[in-house]
Amino acid sequence: MENEDKNIDRTEQVVDSKIDFNQLGAKPKASKFDRITTVILLIICIGLAAFIIFGSVGSRTVAVEEEAVDSRINVRAEEVTPGTFRNYTRLNGEIGSDNSDVSVVPDTAGDVVSILVKRGDSVKAGDVIAYLDPSRPGASYKESPVTAPVDGIITSIPVSIGEHVSTASAIATVSGAKTLYIESRLPERYIGTAAAGMTAEFTSVAYPGETFTAVLSFIAPTVSSTNRTADIELEITEGAEKLREGMYVTIDLVTEEQTDVITVPVSAITETLDGNIVYVVEDGRASSRTVTVGSRNESEAVIVSGLEAGDVVITAGTVAEGSSVNVLE
User: Fold this and answer.
1) Which fold has domain 73-85+260-327?
2) Nearest to 245 by CA among 196, 206, 213
3) Each residue of 54-88: pLDDT tens digit?
4) CATH no. of 88-97+179-258
């Protein structure tokens, strides 16, 4: 009896312990909250993917644009307009004067009793500058005045009080108003282009950075056989009050002048086997122009043909035909 009961219990345990495989294979039902969460996460993933894709494309576009800008050559350029061209001849010279120094001599011989002036004093014609004692032994004493013959400045007093002077002795030297001019020498090769009336600019180390003006007033009719130059003089037209006789000056004499012509800096011209060319800016690119060059000086040249007013000429920067350029301000 007991054995039967035990067998029944074991059978029930086996039945109870059977696994329901249908329930294991069934998926649990998703809640509404889980579905909403899944949708939100999906939208976020799609948004991130779009941001990465389009951001990458945008970066590549900016990089390409920056690369295009960087590939342009930086240049300097200027628009050409008709103007005045001058050619200069550089000379050295010295300030001279008409030498208006006047020696003051007494009317009578005698001993210098007093001197009323000193070097640098300004005097007028008739001013007394010294007194002499012309008396002889046994004669009554009487002072004799010595007067300035012209207006000017006392530049020297070669006598002293008590000294005996004659009518040929200079009591003082008066420097009157002087007309200053420039003395120079013109090389023979420039004589054919020089003429009286030509203008000039000159400088002096006494006044750094300051420019004075003058006019060519004289050209010697002969040329020195020793140095192949002709003596010239230039009349100072501006700034003479600052200058002194004997000063050394550097002169730029205008030997050629052209008006209403197109000029470009010499640095803008490139010499080739086929002639001279300049580069102009057209639609953001360098374009070569063959030009005919006329007169030139140290800094600029006259363009006879090949350019027109309004052309923008590249003055600095290494370019070639068709180069993309960026004009610096």
Assistant:
1) 2.40.420
2) 206
3) 655 555 554 444 444 458 899 999 999 999 998 88
4) 2.40.30.170
